[in-house]
Amino acid sequence: MFIEFAFVLGLLHNLLLVSIFYSRRIRNEGLLRKFGLAYLILTIPLTIISLIFSIVEGMASWYTIYLAIVLVYLLVEALLDWVLKIDFRSNWKLLIPYLVLYFFANYALVMIVWRTNLTLGIIILVLYIIQLIFNALSHNKVKKKKVL
Question: What backbone torsions phi and psi does residue 78 show, to the nearest 5 degrees?
């Protein structure tokens, strides 16, 4: 059961983040909030269930550690975006640790599935790459200042 929950977690995580980044790209605030809330409501419990299954099924301890890091990332995301409502993405002191958690959580979700089932791992990896593309496209281009 562990790998099934981990795979579904990876699918939801990536597909909902693609939806969030697409909503940012088209500047649809209502859609962005709906996908953001759905992301947290679905992924936090699924991460906890996956964590429990990793312990119950006696998976290697690194599975549990990786899932704990994913859970920390999700809780930090919920705390900053939904509870405290801090614009942390424009403050590099908050953004850097957040990005470290973001990238490690994504890496963990790919590796958890990859190490257990290569085919499913490749699917999660491809979705992660798509997610990164949508993430990059969702940001405004920085205009360079002309130097006289």
Answer: -60, -45
Please report the DSSP string for 75-99 in residue order: HHHHIIIIIS---GGG-HHHHHHHH
* 125 vs 41: CA distance, rounded Å: 23
Domain ranges of the chain: 2-137
Classify residue 54 by burial, with Cβ atoms within 10 Å: 0-12, 13-18, 19+. Answer: buried
Q: What is the pTM of this model?
A: 0.89
Helix ranges, 1-144 (H): 2-25, 29-56, 61-78, 92-116, 118-137
What pLDDT digit, counting tens, does each position of 27-77 carry?
999 999 999 999 999 999 999 999 999 999 999 999 999 999 999 999 999
C-alpha distances (whole Å) from 53 to each of 58, 92, 141, 148 are: 8, 36, 43, 62
Q: What is the pLDDT of residues 110-147, one digit of tens each?
A: 999 999 999 999 999 999 999 999 999 998 766 666 66
Please state, in angstroms and rounded to a whole number, the distance separating the CA atoms of residues 30 and 20: 11
What φ, ψ does residue 140 adopt, rounded to 5°?
A: -70, 145
